[in-house]
Amino acid sequence: MTLEDYISRLNENIFFKEFSFSRNQFSPAQGVELEFADHVIWLDDLFITFQIKRREYSDDHTEASEANWFEKKVLRKATQQIRDTIHFLDAHDKINIINARGHSFDVIAAKTNKSFHMVLYAHDHCLPEKYKRKKFHISSSAGFIHLMSIEDYLGICQTLITPAEIGDYLTFRQKLGGKFGQINILPEQALLGQFLYGVLEAEPSIDFAKYLAELKHTPDEFDLSYIIRNFKDRILNANNSVDYYKILRELAKLGREELKEVKLRFNLSIQNCQRNEYVKPYRVTFPRTGCGFVFVPVQQERRAYALNALQNFTHAHKYEQKLEKCIGVSFVNDGEYYDINYCYIEQNWVHDPDMERILKDNFPFRPVRQETMHRYWFANETAGE
Known about the structure:
This protein is of the alpha+beta class. The protein folds into 2 domains: 212 residues, no CATH class; 141 residues, no CATH class. Helices cover 38% and strands 23% of the residues. The strands form 4 sheets. An 8-stranded mixed β-sheet has the order 7-6-1-4-5-8-10-9. A hairpin with a 4-residue loop joins strand 11 and strand 12.
């Protein structure tokens, strides 16, 4: 497996195959083929380009040779390739690249999104420490370019896990680098620990590394991979093969504390299906992303009405919470398996007298309450962010 293949698989696992692009050659003219970037993540307003460099085997393993490799391949060639990628976005009207699901998208639309540019590299053990600690490169044309070893990037992905958190970390890292140049003398673990603890404006220090070691890491509480696997075939009113991207995109925007709330209600719905008891739908709304979720357990004897109920409850929750986006999930237990379907609605909220009357006469939901969520918890029971 090449290093590019390894990064592709890692990113597909974290950011989903739908938003990971590794086949990035495009032809702006007949007989011309260009490479947009080694790898691209494009998830709504999160846009990351990667250039990947690996130290090839050599008999010459000295600090001087490794420093020369880093200067030539990482600081010059890779950053030039980043600048080329940015130039392509400005110079071409259309650039189609293909994601890991085989679907083609015009990446020109990403020009207006929040973007990050990264150079990932695999180095030899002889690389001098000052190069290993170098966190960024400032380009007059490309701006801030993140520099990171493969090992550090893997550690970030294993710690943060969700696309939303990785995007937030890159934002934090970039702001910190612009304000405090001394991040280039600290290990990545110190910056990651500071991000986890939530003191985002403080001067960086090696002391923050302890919070990485003390983090309570409980991915089972918010991992939804078993839920979303193959759910694209169970979407109500899906018109084409990529309609399910809309649901996946909203899930990918959530942090672990938000995903935990989604998973809790999903599991409660499954449990109610097992008992075949009537319960009101479970629901949750995340003002940060402007999307609501409603979970509708349906009794077996009412299974014929499940899809109609799914659509009605999704509309009702969206309206009652004054949202523009809402995702509904219905559950029916047929005795051996669960029939789970999804509904996605996105449209501007407008006043509806009929819906007002329905909600007033027969309110179908549990009351909602507002809560402040802490993203990270540590061994000493303190919360971060």
